[in-house]
Amino acid sequence: MTLRVGVIGGGQLARMMVPASVELGIDIRVLAEGPGMSAAIAATAEGDYHDVDTVLAFAQDVDVVTFDHEHVPQDVLRALVEAGVAVRPGPAPLAVAQDKITMRTRLTELGLPVPDWASVHDPAELRAFIADHGGRAVVKTPRGGYDGKGVRVVSDPAEVEDWFTAVAESASEQALLAEELVTFTRELAQSVARRPSGEIVAWPLVETVQRDGVCAEVIAPAPDSAGRIADLAESIAVRVAEEFGVTGVLAVELFQTDDERILINELAMRPHNTGHWSIDGATTSQFEQHLRAVLDLPLGATGMNAPIAVMVNVLGGPADGDLAARYPAALAAFPEAKYHFYGKAPRPGRKIGHVTVTGEDVDDVVYRARSAASHFDD
């Protein structure tokens, strides 16, 4: 009897679940937002994930519904649950991922380490927060931001005047999130997977490199992290997964501060860009693991296939849009590299693919991964 997984969202994360589903013999079905999406190769339906009837029709003959993103509205998620559909992760954990103020509130209640923060309802409250935090602050929109969108570093409330106007006109949002501008030495990410019966596994902690708010590189394992730092990061991610009842892959993005603290930056309750290295660098990729987890199957081993794995995102791509013309030179120059492209048209700043290289020396592997990816830049 074939297991059937329905994925809401047709982006590259759904696309990368397809090879894993084929290998496991799982029937994967994708509800894509429209034609031309990354996961169009597996899309069995197109439609608006905001529409209850569309989503219920899509889910009627699958064993479990999971997600390519966290943006499905709560009323749609509740309708699925009421219809008897297994939704993983469920409405409660996704509510935390969908709203950054809710996320910060819950993490603070659990005593987990986060930057100092406040919900600010007007310019006066933000001005007071800025004054109390050295004259600068990070301001975020509670919903919808990703890859640097919905995030601004400000020294004056006037720099987010348009956001306060939007809040005043919104029926669902009442405040912006203000956070201290953390002085950090590097950014880290810890991925874990949890199945409904409670089993949890963790991949090695990784170091991430951001450019213009977008993840550009990932190094696994994070250099100089063995011991206290890795143990602390894993314990934080496991606690989040257990306390919030996450099922599937959870990625916790972290700051390592200059005084050796580890602070939670963001949560993603799905496969995540910081875990793409696992496709080629780990025994079980995050995409196979996610499918195992949401189906409540025993989870796979998370050890590494080589001492070092480095993933470099291809951001933007060639100006002429002709990726295929770049293949011969790249594949010939770095035959050991693994190339992954998402079926997305090149556009400045857009994630259109990634390259992963494994090896034994971190400097050498970083160099080769960067060089292989550079074949697709102008």
Which short descriptors sum up this protein?
single chain, 378 residues, alpha+beta, 9-stranded antiparallel beta sheet, 12 helices
In short:
With 378 residues, this protein is an alpha+beta fold. It has twelve helices and 17 strands.
Q: How many helical stretches? A: 12
Helicity range of the residues? Answer: 25-40%
Largest sheet: 9 strands, antiparallel
Unreliably modeled segments: none
Q: Give the overall silhouette.
A: globular
Distance between the termini: 49 Å
- What's the total number of strands? 17
Note the beta-strand portion.
Answer: 25-35%
Briefly note the structural class of the backbone.
Answer: alpha+beta
What kind of oligomer do you see?
single chain
Give a description of the structure.
The protein has 378 residues and is an alpha+beta fold. 31% of the residues lie in helices and 26% in strands. It has helices at residues 12-24, 52-59, 74-82, 91-98, 100-109, 123-132, 161-169, 228-244, 278-281, 286-294, 327-333, 362-374; strands at 4-8, 27-32, 43-46, 64-67, 117-120, 137-140, 151-154, 176-179, 184-194, 200-202, 206-211, 214-220, 248-257, 262-268, 308-315, 338-341, 351-359. The strands form three sheets. Strands 9, 10, 11, 12, 13, 14, 15, 16 and 17 form a nine-stranded antiparallel sheet that branches. A four-stranded parallel sheet has the order 3-2-1-4, with helices on both faces. A four-stranded antiparallel sheet has the order 5-8-6-7, sandwiched between helices. Strand 11 (206-211) and strand 12 form a beta hairpin. The chain starts with a strand and ends with a helix.
